[in-house]
């Protein structure tokens, strides 16, 4: 296993400076870059631990605070464990914050994160991988469509509202995506019903995007997040295997070491 160095960093954007967590191998050598787009709960201890796990595999990982316009993460107070009761109150407070992060703002911010990584000595030259969770899955698809020359791979897990009737729905980015896409859907997720999954996969197929969409049986929305009641250990381990498989295919076996 690779020794990892994790630090808090600041990334300039058009809307001010975003706080972020950077994890990378401690030797300082340039490694393939991975941009993580979080769920609505944002950067917190479990997310940093997950970034460290990716870095230990030999990658440079940036996890920005997507809601930096509201201040440093977390933008609302979070308990150590988010159960169903706490979740409702947290989302009541987060909803206006989420609404402020329009697709246009999120895409502009993503461009800033990608530029910052391109200038980072610890990030290897070339395109990056995107990993998105919950709302971050939709942001990852939009980012891949907006910056096709900078994104080589997209992984999204338990994403919601990925293929709606909204004219800005994430699935409409498919014709502009050149990256390989892997999506792991939650089986029990009202925010992504079967008809949306079908519409999303059809859009990717019609656009000629190399992709795989899988439904994780019995898994709830948020199944990768160990600090929530939605966590599913079996589904989480499948997520890790799928993610590292995508990174290996993208950067080549051994490219991260």
From TrEMBL:
Q: Does the keyword Hydrolase apply?
A: yes
Under the heading InterPro entries, the entry gives: AB_hydrolase_fold, Dienelactn_hydro, Dienelactone_hydrolase-like
Q: Name one GO molecular function term.
A: hydrolase activity
Which Gene3D superfamilies would you find in this protein's record?
alpha/beta hydrolase
Domain named Dienelactone hydrolase is located at 19-248
Keywords assigned by UniProt? Hydrolase
Domain of life, per UniProt, equals: Bacteria
Q: Which Pfam families match?
A: DLH
Entry protein name: Dienelactone hydrolase
Q: Which organism is it from?
A: Streptomyces griseorubens
């Amino acid at each position: 296993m690779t020794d990892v160095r994790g630090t808090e960093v600041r990334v300039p954007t058009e809307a001010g400076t975003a706080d972020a967590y950077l994890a990378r191998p401690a030797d300082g050598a340039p490694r393939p870059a991975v941009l993580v787009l979080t769920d609505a709960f944002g950067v917190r201890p479990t997310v940093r631990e997950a970034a460290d796990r990716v870095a230990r595999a030999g990658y440079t990982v940036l996890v920005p605070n997507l809601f930096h316009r509201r201040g440093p993460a977390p933008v609302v107070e979070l308990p150590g464990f988010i159960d169903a009761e706490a979740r409702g109150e947290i989302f009541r407070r987060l909803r206006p914050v989420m609404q402020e992060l329009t697709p246009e703002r999120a895409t502009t911010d993503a461009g800033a994160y990608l530029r910052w990584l391109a200038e980072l000595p610890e990030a290897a030259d070339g395109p990056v991988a995107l990993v998105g969770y919950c709302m971050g899955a939709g942001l990852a698809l939009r980012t891949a469509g907006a910056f096709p020359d900078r994104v080589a791979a997209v992984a999204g897990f338990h994403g919601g509202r990925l293929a709606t009737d909204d004219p800005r729905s994430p699935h409409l980015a498919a014709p502009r995506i050149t990256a390989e896409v892997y999506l792991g859907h939650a089986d029990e997720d009202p925010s992504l019903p079967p008809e949306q999954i079908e519409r999303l996969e059809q859009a990717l197929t019609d656009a000629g995007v190399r992709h795989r969409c899988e439904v994780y049986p019995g898994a709830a929305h948020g199944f990768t997040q160990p600090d929530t009641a939605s966590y599913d250990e079996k589904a989480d381990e499948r997520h890790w295997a799928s993610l590292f498989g995508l990174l290996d295919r993208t950067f080549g076996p051994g490219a991260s070491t």
